[in-house]
Specification:
This protein is α/β, with parallel strands linked by helices. The chain is built from 24 helices and 12 strands. Bound molecules: zinc ion (2 copies). Pfam families: RabGAP-TBC.
Amino acid sequence: MTSCTLYPNNWKQMRLIKLLYKTPQEEFSIITDLNLPNQQVIKCDVERTRSDEITSEEKFLLENMLTLYCKQTSISYKQGMNEILVPFLVLCRYGMPYYIAYTCFKEFINSCLKTMFQDETFRPLQGWFIIMNLLLKYHSPKISNFLQDHDITPELYTTSWFLTMYATKVTSLNYLFILWENIILENDYIFPCFVAVSLIDKFQEGILGQEYAFIPLALNKIAINSYEELQQVLDKSQQIKSFLPISIAAKLKNYDIYNLKSIDSYTQALSKTSCLSILPREIMHLAYPEVKLCNCQKGCKMCRNSYPVIIIDCRCSRQQKQGYFPNTEFFDGNINDPKCIEQFPLKFFNIRGVYHFALLGSEDIKHDNYGQNSQNIVTKLLKSFWQKEFQYVSVVEGGYNSCHEFALDYNLEIKDHISSSCLLCCKLKKIISKKDVSKSMKKLNTEIREKCRTNSTIKVFECKKYNLKIGIVQEDMLNLIVGPDTIMITDRDSHIIDRYLIKDLNKIANSQDLSAILTFNFHTIKEKISYSFANSKKAKSCLKKVTTVFRSLKNEIIKGLI
Ligand SMILES: [Zn+2]
Ligand SMILES: [Zn+2]
């Protein structure tokens, strides 16, 4: 946090301006023809913007600058832009040239709102709503419950916060500039969500207990009126961010909220989740603190990671008997007894607000078509914890199944675990039979089938698709079949999903920290494709096989040329 002695008359010294106006530019005119198809909309909005605070001359400049921006960027004018421009325009009263004010405005949108105004439907905003809601539930369950019970969703009150980057929520421009400076320096696309949660958390007393009709008014009243309030909100935003488990923070940071091509799939995936989820890797670090689980030299974030956490194994006792992880607590009540579910969190009541709670089910929470969780035990306990206003409650992604797989990969001792009687182990061991392979082969076209028959070196590897971008292994077990010139991916019923020619292979990679994962890069396909294998040995063996085939193919081509 920077000092509060920033006044607009020394705008040249303001950190925000230094961040936005980095290289001196030649002066240019911000006056332009006011002839856009929707010019009337801009005009009307300009009239309404802080009408008692800015002069008519400033309104004229405001309209010109907004019009110029739309022309230069080919973006149609949208509400929000006006509120973001005004603070910079006001600096012109203190001698800032118009073109610098305009440049700062343009740069600010570039760094904090990126593609927001490019999209006619503000899709990045949808992502923020969902993330903000998940964070609010995680950090401030009391107010989150209250708003949810009254059907007040984030779109209803945070739209203007986000689209104006809080310009209308900070009464003094001095403080607004400090907030904006902090948002830029944070360099985190979802930081505005942390600010939103922090604001709601700070002003929750004025909202809680209000009658339904008065809640919107109470939410509307939220504003930062002093430097102390701004500092509290910023400190709290940082605290909320730092309290997140590493894998949750990393996943959120990886959501490319401004990529208009991928945003729909992100928001779709996010909208199906009812709470934040921790990756198995982090849970395993926490359950086995004495074991070194990665190759880092000095200790990475994950290795140094320690915070008070209680991992609650929510599986039924039959499953728990087949193996469990050290340092976990059990839900040992009757799953079908609502009272048991309701009472369970009370066990931890005196550590509420201090400890994190990670709920471990047998697999992922299942969602129906409406994004609602089916009523499984994890969901029931999750709700119960929230009702008791427990903070920091999350679920373990992929549940025990994924952690079990991780434990086997890293030779971690699972308590009471007998491989031969463990259902999961038996499932994993089921190697594809020769019959499976021949079934797969039958579905191939005749030419390739002929080649496969004459070549006895076909190899089949079990794998799962791995999403490189978000670091998630997909559920479905697949076969990766390496033939004499083809790599074929089939599902367990031998339906061919993908087929790649080995000669098109550009690169095949097996990174050190993700040693069970192979990443293929084909000339013919833009995206890299990754698969996760049962362990690093299997991945290496597949890598070796593909490389051998690739080399022999290359030799043949060279021979052909001679
Ligand atoms: Zn490490
Ligand atoms: Zn097992």
